[in-house]
Amino acid sequence: MEKTKVKKAQICLFVFNRLAETKKTVEALQSNFLAEEYHLNIFSDGPRSLQDQKKIQEVRDYVNLIEGFKSIKVLESDENKGLAKSIIDGVSQVLKLSDCVIVLEDDLVTSPNFLDFMEQALSYYEDDKNVISISGFTFNMPSLPGEKDYYFGYRASSWGWAVWKDRWNSIDWEISDYKAFIKNKEEKKRFKKGGSDLVRMLRNQMNGKIDSWAIRFCYNQFKSDLKTVFPTISKVSNIGFGEDATHTTGATRFRTKLDVGNKRNFHFDKFSKMDKNLVKEFSHFFSSRTIILDKLISFIRK
């Protein structure tokens, strides 16, 4: 490990109307070894309809009483921004005050060493311009955990992630070159190295069928040929598979084993090349066949 250079990141937590999941997310984060050293910024989105108001207020009442961090700031929106705008605005706001940020949503349970992994990776790869982000989540893949603490991926994860100010500020959220890209077969093929769903998701985003910050982030990552650093044992587990989940209702392929060890010091290496086996295993989770099978299993279990 190299000497820490990066200033300690601030944490952003985005919440909405799920009190039970929010409590589990916060309690797990409070149990992190480094929790008391971190500033926590909680962004509470506004209601989509009158039915949301009571649940949102319950969440706000709860988060305004939590303790266990260096400082806690709760920012409540009167309007419903939606997740994409909430994250883009919130992360941008915090990065005006910090060199890097760690981001969580209200349905993510973290291991006690989550902040250790994120902080050390942020420090190690701060000046490695091959890396755009750090992920705390990883899939259960046949080749993992292996001998290393990390591996590199072609696409970012939106479940417990971190980014530096300079990488974040370079993102073109408008995807200004989309028209040229969507006509280029070779470019589309290269983009799919991170998963066969990426081109379809970007097309849906640009056609207004979805509203996702993550697909735009991943596209910018691809255009700049940057990598994401993943742990070989997941430090994040998604618990948001219930009826109130926005994007992952019933999904099974995203379930992973959470790190239950107490390891706090992690070893990293500068990027040299991709592990072909891990690239193949990772992309499998986003193949059309896997997605269809996942939906079938979820339907049978209902």
UniProtKB/TrEMBL annotation:
InterPro entries, sorted: Glyco_trans_2-like (IPR001173), Nucleotide-diphossugar_trans (IPR029044)
Source species taxonomy: Bacteria, Pseudomonadati, Bacteroidota, Flavobacteriia, Flavobacteriales
Alphabetical keyword list: Glycosyltransferase, Transferase
Protein name: Glycosyltransferase
Species of provenance: Maribacter confluentis
Enzyme class: transferase
Gene Ontology MF terms in the entry: glycosyltransferase activity
Keyword Transferase part of the UniProt annotation: yes
EC number: 2.4.-.-
Gene3D superfamilies assigned to the protein according to its UniProt record, in alphabetical order: Spore Coat Polysaccharide Biosynthesis Protein SpsA, Chain A (3.90.550.10)
Domain Glycosyltransferase 2-like as annotated: residue spans: 11-130
Segments traversing the membrane: none
